[in-house]
Fold this sequence. Notes:
The structure holds 2 protein chains of 2 kinds. By secondary structure, chain A is of the alpha+beta class. Chain A has 4 domains: 2-124, no CATH class; 140-233 and 357-475, Beta Barrel (Dna-directed Rna Polymerase Ii 140kd Polypeptide, Chain: B, Domain 6); 235-353, CATH 2.40.50.150; 536-587, RNA polymerase alpha subunit dimerisation domain (DCoH-like), CATH 3.90.1800.10. Helices cover 19% and strands 26% of the residues of chain A. Chain A has 13 helices and 34 strands. In chain A, strands 12-26-13-24-23-30 form a 6-stranded mixed β-barrel. In chain A, strands 5, 6, 7, 8 and 9 form a 5-stranded mixed beta sheet that branches. In chain A, helix 9 packs parallel to helix 10. In chain B, strands 8-9-1-10 form a 4-stranded antiparallel beta sheet. Chain B has a 4-stranded antiparallel beta sheet with strand order 3-4-6-5. A two-stranded antiparallel ribbon of chain B has the order 2-7. Chain B has 16 helices and 10 strands. Chain B folds into 4 domains: 7-46; 55-103 and 264-309, PTS-regulatory domain, PRD (Orthogonal Bundle); 130-216; 322-368, DNA polymerase, domain 1, CATH 1.10.150.390. The chains are: A alpha+beta, B alpha+beta. The interface between A and B is medium-sized, with 25 and 29 residues.
Amino acid sequence: xxxxxxxxxxxxxxxxxxxxxxxxxxxxxxxxxxxxxxxxxxxxxxxxxxxxxxxxxxxxxxxxxxxxxxxxxxxxxxxxxxxxxxxxxxxxxxxxxxxxxxxxxxxxxxxxxxxxxxxxxxxxxxxxxxxxxxxxxxxxxxxxxxxxxxxxxxxxxxxxxxxxxxxxxxxxxxxxxxxxxxxxxxxxxxxxxxxxxxxxxxxxxxxxxxxxxxxxxxxxxxxxxxxxxxxxxxxxxxxxxxxxxxxxxxxxxxxxxxxxxxxxxxxxxxxxxxxxxxxxxxxxxxxxxxxxxxxxxxxxxxxxxxxxxxxxxxxxxxxxxxxxxxxxxxxxxxxxxxxxxxxxxxxxxxxxxxxxxxxxxxxxxxxxxxxxxxxxxxxxxxxxxxxxxxxxxxxxxxxxxxxxxxxxxxxxxxxxxxxxxxxxxxxxxxxxxxxxxxxxxxxxxxxxxxxxxxxxxxxxxxxxxxxxxxxxxxxxxxxxxxxxxxxxxxxxxxxxxxxxxxxxxxxxxxxxxxxxxxxxxxxxxxxxxxxxxxxxxxxxxxxxxxxxxxxxxxxxxxxxxxxxxxxxxxxxxxxxxxxxxxxxxxxxxxxxxxxxxxxx
Amino acid sequence: xxxxxxxxxxxxxxxxxxxxxxxxxxxxxxxxxxxxxxxxxxxxxxxxxxxxxxxxxxxxxxxxxxxxxxxxxxxxxxxxxxxxxxxxxxxxxxxxxxxxxxxxxxxxxxxxxxxxxxxxxxxxxxxxxxxxxxxxxxxxxxxxxxxxxxxxxxxxxxxxxxxxxxxxxxxxxxxxxxxxxxxxxxxxxxxxxxxxxxxxxxxxxxxxxxxxxxxxxxxxxxxxxxxxxxxxxxxxxxxxxxxxxxxxxxxxxxxxxxxxxxxxxxxxxxxxxxxxxxxxxxxxxxxxxxxxxxxxxxxxxxxxxxxxxxxxxxxxxxxxxxxxxxxxxxxxxxxxxxxxxxxxxxxxxxxxxxxxxxxxxxxxxxxxxxxxxxxxxxx
Lengths: 600, 379
């Protein structure tokens, strides 16, 4: 007896599972049972699972009978003439969708030439095994699988034309590239996914060579001229949002130019862009610290007196200002109401981003790199015909990673650019390298893509030929402008008095446990002490009881709250964090007595 | 200037010998002492200077290559059939000072006269621990008579060289309430009736006990494997019992080795245990193809053994022995240490490194170590 489960729930038993299974499959192919149903018989557990629930990954395959695909010449003709739709193919058992479980009991042929009578299904197309993004990698069957994978992942991070209504959208942290182009070397997926309507890269001339060591270790060298012509130029958008919140007691935030009496008033200069309503105007050029939306809030804790005195001096400043290190131009101001009926201000800030040293670029083959140097056009190497590369790619990036597709795309792009046509690079079904090379030869170039080049600085001819061609390059969303960070002094945490953490809070860079060990290992005792001085404090200690004493700033006198005025009190220098741990000990009823001793 | 043969006393013995060995006998005394002086200078340069942070340097020197160690080791397939824990898990096991190691093994060398394929096999079999269940084929319980009948496997007995008398002697040790009889191939155990009636479950319990009765061989060594190492036959074992193995007359006691450090400690003493820690850790490091100076490991082994007993680098081991409360608290379970110190009224004199880091004082290491001897006069 075989147990039968319907979408994971036990429904009954049957005696002949194989017959049962075949029947379901047959009926499904006839279109009697929904094509959404999948069956799987687990011989080991003697269980038959029928699935029709949601959330299963399924993929279409051509049904094969006796070694012959159901998608015959005749059917193909009908499809071409438009007589048969996809639904009809599914309902007539030409094509069926399989889920992961049912796939276990099938034998799928990779392509028609491999078909044997044992096969049950045929792959629709070889590139069908890839997902959308991976199919966008041209010549991917020539690269290592792992690199195709990274290449496909990198494409998701590329800046492009992400939405046609970008002007009115309030997206967080997005970029738009200025002149996106269709790739010259493309795959069938570019057509199927309408990639031409929202491209995200640019076709540029790439030379594979080193340039004064500035493209070591996956770095790339960019041509300043290309940047000036618009390569990799993008807009970065970030919204600033303020809401007039309502508090208990009828108190409310107010969007306005803050009064000078307000607690935490910045400076007149900081509010200079605000118009009468307390909101900035479009096309204002703002820089770090400039207020975008002026706002004041009621005091946090109302004392009995203040309740009746809600004058400006009791309110506190809560404006939205440009973040540390950010600048831009006000793009769009929206004044609306949110779901709770509160006044809501949204301001979009636009910032033009030209490629700079540290920005990340990639081809579609997982060959990502960071800009190491931007070279004036005049100093770039050039070919005999006067072509100057837009980007110089390091040859050392190829051998260990075996991204052959990268090299083929370079030749393909060159042919496409010269012949004025697109090159098909669909995986397993691309224009053969040999044919592309022959075409390049016919166009009057060396078939291996190598050209004689000249040093842009001295004009000397390079002793070796340089592999140069056209490629589709993507600018990735990781831009240095969003990551650059340094600090000498800055904000500290309230509790520990140690520097804050993170770029957004202008934080310090932690010298951690292991880093500390390296100082000790070098015996650099005083350097270590200096590095850990960030929360240094001077505290009075009572010699009698060994606890922290009090210093009266008015009387300029220290006293001990336990031992009185006459106790001997001395000052010690310790990290504030240590004073904090002493306090914590006291809270645990542990008496941390300090015994002072003069060092000298 | 160094006096003649002065180097003999100032240089370590090994270096002095080396000099004498390398220099031709015709070398004049003056030449020798000149060279020795130079060697002494080099030697002094190589010495660790006072204030060098040897502990942290050792920790970093072991820790950094340790990150490259393969976490799991490959399992040997086929002939060797011995699978010993290696790699990071083994190092952790040693340095934690675990009493029960996952794969105890021994490498037993034999005396010269036993260095022969057949003899080694014989010795190996005699070492291998045998239980009653291994030399018998059938256990049956005679319920009405409260008897257990066991069928002997003569073939197995011959293989393991166990005679009837040895068997009976071993079985007599099982307990006073059981009497043993032998009839042809049948062992008959009778349970002597005591004051209370023994139930069937009791008989069953005794049967299980009998199955596991140790008959011959060394306890704790369930598997043996004679192998040829270079020109010698040695015995590898799974399981370890150093004390018993050293007592065997066939074994070359000077070379028998176990990987169980605590067994070495209890049979051979703390110095041997220290050497065992060094050997075992170094074996793993070599096996992983890493290059760590042995002196770092020696320092760790020394730390583990200073108190005369092997202690792990854990909060129960060497860390517990630290003098400073703050130092102990900075390593795992701080609250316990603070409460404990509070109960005992401990005083922390801030003599070591970590306490001084916590108070941001110069650490007494390197440039922070030297102090001023002269007293500063009061103004």
